[in-house]
């Protein structure tokens, strides 16, 4: 297998060939319940089934709430693909919880 590629006779090493590594290490969370927050204020909880280098996530048995709602009414979504450009955070559900507001 060739490591680099050429463009008009120029050789580029494999490190410069456009390959990216993900900033997040999600392999340990596959098959585990996670909470995903999106840029539009939604919060989705489901089982992480898969992901790619662009942070597109496949979640199974999802429930969704909006962060702006107090006590957020949820709805069941089933299997969902969360687009990576909209994902702002991914957290394991077992360590996710609300803490008391220290400013009140």
Summarize the entry for a quick read.
By secondary structure, the chain is mostly beta strands. 0% of the residues lie in helices and 44% in strands.
Helix vs. strand class: mainly beta
Question: What is the chain-wise order of helices and strands?
Answer: EEEEEEE
Rg over alpha carbons: 18 Å
Overall outline? globular
Main sheet properties: 5 strands, antiparallel
Distance between the termini: 61 Å
Total beta strands: 7
Q: For the largest beta sheet, what order do the strands appear in spatially?
A: 6-5-4-3-7
Q: Architecture in CATH?
A: Roll
Average predicted local confidence, pLDDT: 77
Stated plainly, the CATH topology is called SH3 type barrels
Q: What is the CATH class? A: Mainly Beta
Low-confidence stretches: 1-8, 12-17
Helix fraction bin = under 10%
Helical stretch count? 0
Strand content: 35-45%
Overall number of structural domains: 1
Overall description:
- The structure is a single chain.
- The protein is an all-beta fold and 104 residues long.
- It has a single domain, classed as SH3 type barrels (Roll).
- The chain is built from no helices and seven strands.
- A five-stranded antiparallel beta sheet has the order 6-5-4-3-7, with no helix packed on it.
- The chain starts with a strand and ends in a 12-residue tail after the last strand.
- Residues 1-8 and 12-17 have low confidence and may be disordered.
Features:
5-stranded antiparallel sheet; 104 residues; SH3 type barrels; disordered N terminus
């Amino acid at each position: 297998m060739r490591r680099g590629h050429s463009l008009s006779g120029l050789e580029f090493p494999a490190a410069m060939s456009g390959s990216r590594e993900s900033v997040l290490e999600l392999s340990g969370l596959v098959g585990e319940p996670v909470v995903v927050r999106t840029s539009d204020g939604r919060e989705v909880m489901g089982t992480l089934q898969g992901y790619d280098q662009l942070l597109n996530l496949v979640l199974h048995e999802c429930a969704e709430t909006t962060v702006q709602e107090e006590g957020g009414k949820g709805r069941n979504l089933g299997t969902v693909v969360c687009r990576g450009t909209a994902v702002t955070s991914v957290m394991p559900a077992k360590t996710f919880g609300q803490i008391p507001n220290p400013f009140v």
